[in-house]
Specification:
Layout (H helix, E strand, L loop, with lengths): L2 H15 L13 E4 L10 H11 L3 E3 L5 H6 L6 E6 L4 H5 L2 H11 L8 E7 L9 H20 L7 E3 L7 E3 L7 E2 L4 H14 L3 E4 L2 H7 L6 H4 L7 E3 L4 E3 L2 H16 L6 E6 L14 H16 L14 E4 L39 H7 L9 H16 L1
Parallel strand pairs: 1-2, 1-12, 2-3, 3-4, 4-5, 8-11, 11-12
Antiparallel strand pairs: 6-7, 9-10
Length: about 400
Amino acid sequence: MGFSSLFLWLVLLFSVTFPDVVIVHAFTGTYGVNYGRIADNLPSPESVVTLLKAAKIKNIRIYDASHDVLRAFKNSGIEIIIGLGNEFLKDISVSEVRATDWVKENVEPFLPGTKIRGIAVGNEVLGSADQELWEVLLPAVKNVHNALDRVRLAKTVEVSSPHSAGVFASSFPPSAGAFKETLIPYMRPLLQFFSQTGSPFYINTYPFLAYISDPSNIDLNYATFQSNPGIEDSKTNLHYDNMFEAQIDAAYAALEKAGFEKMEVIVSETGWASRGDENEVGANVKNARTYNLNLRRRLAKKKGTPYRPKIAVKAYVFALFNENLKPGPTSERNFGLFKADGSIAYDIGFTGLAPSSASSLKDIGLRGLIGYSNSWMYMTCSGLVLMILL
C-alpha cells in the first residue's frame, strides 16, 4: 500500500472511530467565489474546475446542489457550500424525513470525494418581504442539521443561512448596527441555534449598491478601497477607510446587541458590476476592477476589521461569471470576474480560458488555458509524477 493510500485509510478509520472529533470548517484561507449559473453560455463544470485551480481559488458557493457540478468537483480539493433554495424551505421545514431524503440525495453520495463543507439553507430570507419564509427558516435549518446528524455528517458539513443588508435597522456608523425589531423574534432563535452548532453569521454586503443608491454623498474611493479621509465612529473612536469593513463591523455590532458577540461574520457575497444601466452610476469596468483587485489584496493580508482586529476577514466574491439570463437591471448580469467564454472580464491577476476555444472547453476542459507560467506547468507535471509514484 502506498503512503498516500495508507494515510487516507488511517484518516477514514479515525473518522469512523471518533466521528465527534472530526470538525471541518467551511472556509479555507480568506478568499472564495460564488459560482452562479443563471446563464446558457457558460463553460462546463469540468472547465470551471480547471479555471479555479489555475486561479488558486479554494472556496466556492453554489446556489443549488447540481449533481453535474458536484461530480465535476470530485477530487478537485475545492471546498463547496451548496444551496437549498428558498423554494424548498416550506417543504423541508415540516418534515425531518424530507430533509434526510434531500441530504441522502444531494450530499451523502458525493462525499468524501467532493468537498461539500456547508449547506446554505435559503438565501436572504429574513431580509425579504415573505413573512411565511421567515417562519419556516429555523425549522428548515434544524431539520437539515438533524438530517446531517443522522448520517454522521453534522460535524463535517456546516449549516448556515446568508442574510442581506435588509436585516439591519441601522448600519451607520458601524457601532449603530442593529437588527430590525420586526426580525428579532426570528433572528435571535436562529442565531441561538447557530451559536450552538458553531456556524458563523453570513452576510451579503455590497458597497456597490450603497454607492449607486447615493453617489453624491458617498465617496467612490471609500467604497472601492482607495485613498480617502475615511470616517470616524465617535462611539468606538475607530477609524474606517473603506465601506466594506464598516459594513462588516455593523454586523458585529448588531450581533453584539442581540447577545451573540462571539459569533464570527463571514461575507457570503460582495462584488462590483462592470456594466449597468444609465442610472447605475459607477457600474463600469474601471470601478469593478479597482474594487475586486483591492478586495483581493485586502483579504490576502488575513487581517481583521477595526472592531474585530483578531478575526481575519473572509469573503466570497460575487461572482465567478457574468450570467446572461439573470433578471433585473443590467448590473445583475455583469458581476463576473470572468466572461461567459472563460476569459477574464478585467485583470486582477487571474488566468482566464482562451475565448477562441471556449466551445471546445465545454467538452474537454483542459485545453485553451492561457497565461500559464513555466513554473506552474512544472509544478503540475511534478505533482502528477508524484501521484503515479505513490
